[in-house]
Amino acid sequence: MKVTEEDILHIAALSRLKIAKEEEKNYQEELDKIISYMDILEGVDTENVPPTTYALPMENVFREDEPKDSLDRELALSNAPEVEDGYFKVPRVLEES
Amino acid sequence: MRYEAVIGLEIHSELKTNTKIFCGCKTTFGAEQNTHVCPVCLGLPGVLPTVNKKVVEFAIKAGLATNCKINEYSKFDRKNYYYPDLPKNWQTSQYDLPIAEHGYVEILVDSEKKKIGLTRIHMEEDAGKLVHSGTNIKDSASSNVDYNRTGVPLIEIVSEPDMRSAAEARAYMEKIKAILEYIDVSNCRMEEGNLRADINVSLRPVGESKLGTRTEMKNINSFKALEDAINYEIERQTEVLEDGGEIIQETRTWDPAKGITLSMRSKEDAHDYRYMPEPDLPPIVTTKEEIENYRKNLPELPDARRARLEKEYGLSEYDASIITSSREMAEYFDGVIATGADAKQAANWIMGDLSKNLNADGVTVKDSPVDAKRLGEMILLIQKGTISGKIAKQVFSEMWKNPDSPEKIVKDKGLVQITDTKAIEGIVDEVIAKNQKAVDDYKNGNKKAIGALVGQVMKASKGKANPQAVNELLAKKLG
Amino acid sequence: MELYFETAASLHSMLKNKKITAKELTEAVISRIDATENEIGAYLTVTKENALENAKKTDEKIAKGEEIGFLEGLPGGIKDNICTKGVKTTCASKILENFVPPYNATVVEKLLGVNYSLMGKLNMDEFAMGGSTENSAYKLTKNPWDKERVPGGSSGGAAASVAAGSAVWSLGSDTGGSIRQPASFCGVVGLKPTYGRVSRYGLVAYASSLDQIGPVTRDVTDAANIMNIIAGNDAMDSTSSKKAVPDYTKSLVKDVKGLKIGCPKEYFADGMDKEVENAVRAAIASYKDMGAEIVDISLPHTKYAISSYYLIAPAEAATNLQRYDGVSYGARVDGEDIVSLMTNTRTAKFGAEVKRRIMIGNYALSAGYYDAYYLKALKVRTLIQQDFTEAFKSVDVIMTPTAPTAAFKIGEMEDPLKLYLQDIYTVPINLAGVPGISVPCGFTQNNLPIGLQIIGRPLDEETIIRAAYAYEQENNWKDKRVGGEN
């Protein structure tokens, strides 16, 4: 499938990446080249072939509902770019998730 | 044109496990910010989730209790979106193979039963909480994030758009709450956000089968807000349509103070959650035998209990459904009749004075100052004739403030009913002497006139005389 | 031979027999680092104090006559995408420039349990994305055999340090060849265990369904000994196998009689580098001389492996790397609101290849393309897995070159797709989840190492270790050291 410049902008937004105007074309050409290579898969007959999501076949791996120690708050916050009163601080968030 | 509302609910319920869904941090509500966190729920580089067994058990129970089919093969997926309360910027949830699908619950509104379809129930993790430093969001320059709630286990119960009114939506949510309480998988404390709903509302002309454009209201966490928001939204959409306008598909917030919904005007680009199977969590396989085993071990559910109360105790459908609408209420009822108290009397007291007092004081039946045992003992006093029904109201009010047994209260306050004819005779004679007109009326064939005389005797005895004894005595004396 | 070039096993016995002290060895490795690091650039963080402290404790234990474990006193390096509590773990990315994990990866816990000696954290391609270590945000690592060439990647630092003598052993990670290919380029042994054999907890995820941690060592004996320490089920990793871990050193026997070796025709296709082909064919011939049976086999879906891999891995990476947003850890570049803060942070702090793969991954996962790309890739993965299952019905191991060429020159692989195609012999192994080991099997005329890849059945590391050991004993490639010291 042809990767368009519009695709690039959409994918960049989904990726939370900014693509400078002058890079757009470059990106588009590069991704198009790579994705075009992937199109080789179109020729593979995968009817009735299940997808492989897990490399090793396993199921029902569970943990008992028993509490474990949490991190000390100081350690939990130790890598934070900005902290306030034991919270991770970010610019104000208006929209709901 | 007349419009019909079409309402669907997505109810999120936090499960009452000790630990989070994917790590061993505690789920206790109200802990100091960022103290129930670990590398896993903070989404630090390198961590992996592990599934809490209890969450799967609870979700299966919830599925069975709502008549769902349990998927023998189920898996987790990543739902990708960016939000600062979501440390990994994806929510581990379930997409195409949820734990349970295709169920229903029955609701009773205006004496009519109706089935509400359940599309699915899936397991997922809760997000953290954003706290704003200023008096409201718009004043504060920053937001603070607390990840204690991140990873608290949730089930999301998605209904079909089967509801047509706010009352039906409320009845549905009450039923879901009752069921979750009965099977003991959630605390359902709505004020703590244990149970909250996203509401979808759309309108269509009556008779039309195609769905109209819907709006969504998120995180509604009280029954009142649920009803108010739906009613407002129905009214708003009706006005828009009647003015020839169009409904915009959007998320709106419910402002309980103003009683209106508001458009969020979110800048968020169109959602593309890019669901993908969670490679870090092997699938969940449940055998038919295991499912049957869960089914066998389910406790009695609200509908079954209601039917049993109707059948065993002759309660009306309405009374039985109110009493079984919460597990606590139903258990309270059981406690009352365990004392030997009459079931219908028990129902009347629970739905009457008890409910009135609970509502007035804003307490739940679990914290009722009058426990089931004392109410039962009081009803027994009525049954034995120790007190009259009227005096019982006084006794009940006293019990609300006073932890003593009903016997002691009756004795201390001298409220024992007078059944001794001799003790009543004097009062009866006095009343006959003072009420010549009523006496004459009675003697002239107006038998109803005796009622006024009985009333006078009761009044003079301060309610303690046994009304039946008074009646008999008067009838005898008046020939 | 210089101390810093000895194998872990021989250093371990020298320590036990008091021929050397751990202090002497550690100082020798530290001075080797001082002498070579400027040129080689294998490390991102060097933890000299830590290694010296460990040496002191080890020497005290030996002096008291106590037993020491295999790795005690032997300075080793860990790839910088494996979390070490209190020691910076950057994944060679600016976005984790100052990230100090508050926890240890399970493998690190296991190593601490046997008193290992951490010499430092090793350079890599940013977030393990690359095959040359040129994608590190911090420095180039150079191939110790030819400093104009790359060490391979993404575990370039892990392979270069072991080859250069600046670490006695190291741990790398392998998602599409990232242990085996640099091992091949640097003339050392690199083992990628079966998916699930070694816990991934604490390995910073690139592609979760493909990643595995494994040892990079100077010989097969060292690899077996380290596998004994790091392998096994972990309650923190739900995808880790519950199968009991054998004693891998029991597989260190020179016996391949009757071993059935499969040679997949798709891996010996036209256009492969002649020197590589000759070396690998000679190695396989040497097995025949030792009594093994060589069988021609086919892995028919091989040609689709690169496409399948370069859709699945970027898709998983796109979500795995979503967490780097400047909110609760890592670098932050401010913005007027939360969306621009996240976007600015990611745009400024991720390198070009990481961005490229995130973009490919999100493309493959996005609405409208999911079925055609991501889902299709997962189905093709099933077919590739089935190729191996089928082949292992008739053979015990499969042998191939590890990489189509010896180490290439720095800057030579500018075209990303060209670099992706270099992974053709290694990615199918990750897609199938089976174990693979790269052992040195010769040198090019330019004195660049060549690697032989030996692939085994799922959870059968024992057989590939035995096969690799037998070859190593029969030949003397492993004794050759950088700089001609022998």
Overview of the molecule:
The complex is a heterotrimer of chains A (97), B (479) and C (486). Chain A is of the alpha+beta class. Chain A is 30% helix and 9% strand. Chain A has a domain at 5-42. A two-stranded antiparallel sheet of chain A has the order 2-3. In chain A, helix 1 (5-14) packs across helix 2. Chain B is α+β, with helices and mostly antiparallel strands and 479 residues long. In chain B, the strands form four sheets. Chain B has a nine-stranded mixed beta sheet with strand order 3-7-8-11-1-12-13-14-15. Chain B folds into three domains: 3-292, no CATH class; 300-412, no CATH class; 421-478, Orthogonal Bundle (Arc Repressor Mutant, subunit A), CATH 1.10.10.410. Helices cover 39% and strands 20% of the residues of chain B. Helices cover 38% and strands 13% of the residues of chain C. Chain C has helices at residues 8-16, 22-40, 48-63, 106-113, 156-164, 180-186, 220-230, 274-289, 305-320, 338-349, 352-365, 370-391, 416-421, 427-432, 461-474; strands at residues 43-46, 75-79, 117-122, 169-174, 189-192, 212-217, 260-264, 293-297, 397-401, 436-443, 449-455. Chain C has an eleven-stranded mixed beta sheet with strand order 1-3-2-4-6-5-10-11-9-7-8. The longest helix of chain C is centred in the C-terminal third of the chain and has 22 residues, at 370-391. The radius of gyration of chain C is 21 Å and the shape is globular. The model of chain C has no long low-confidence stretch (mean pLDDT 96). The chains are: A alpha+beta (97), B alpha+beta (479), C alpha/beta (486). The interface between A and C is large, with 50 and 73 residues.
Strand order of the largest sheet of chain A: 2-3
By CATH, the superfamily of chain C comes out as Amidase signature (AS) domain
Q: Which ranges of chain C are low-confidence, i.e. pLDDT below 50, for 5 or more consecutive residues? A: none
- What structural class results from the helix and strand content of chain A? alpha+beta
Mean pLDDT of chain C, to the nearest integer, reads: 96
CA gyration radius of chain A, whole angstroms: 23 Å
Whole-Å distance between the termini of chain C?
6 Å
Strand order of the largest sheet of chain C: 1-3-2-4-6-5-10-11-9-7-8
